[in-house]
What does this fold into?
Amino acid sequence: MDLQAIVEIDRQLLGVVNGAHSPFFDTLMTVLTSGPTWIPLYLSLLYLVVKNNETMAQIGLVVLCCAICFFITEFVTEGLVKPAVARPRPGNDPEWMYMVHVVGDRRGLDYSFFSAHAANTFGIAVFFCLLVRDTVFSWLMVTWSLLNCYTRLYLAMHYPSDILVGLLFGALVGMVVYLVFWLFYRQLSAGQSYVSTQYSATGYNQTDIDVVACVLMATYAIAIILSLTMHSSL
It folds into this structure.
């Protein structure tokens, strides 16, 4: 299979997602793809970390590792790969730009390959999955990242291959940063194991995990209500 065939498959897959649009989902995907929408989630994750670590050194290490995850994925995508590959976003591709549905004429100013949204969110999701080790929490974090990825396809900001590579890179960064985190963290803690249903395998309180879950569900609900309100007022 040559490169042109792969590009054509990429475009066809994008068309499946991008072509299934409606005014309500245009608004909803715009809300969900926005960084400020997820500030409550980030604050709830900080709450989870603060409540379940005993010292400022432990808390600081978790926060630092999250920042490192974001810095690496952002620097590699925006600072290195995108300028080097220089693949136009679907909405700016001269051969494709009039065949995709673009919401609000938002076509993006930079390049497409590979997705910083996918790398950033999945890197953080994988890191927290390994940190907390709770099945429901892990599913929620992975689903949150994949939803962000879906919005980028729906809004024609990326091709599926951009998303796939971003997810793979984000997963790699999340795992490597967690391994580095654990090397330092075990020097700061007693290394206890937890078997009670009140805690995750790494000692995170289930009640605090539920707070994150509730915040995430509430964010989804507010985004839907806001989108319905904005759509009905047009």
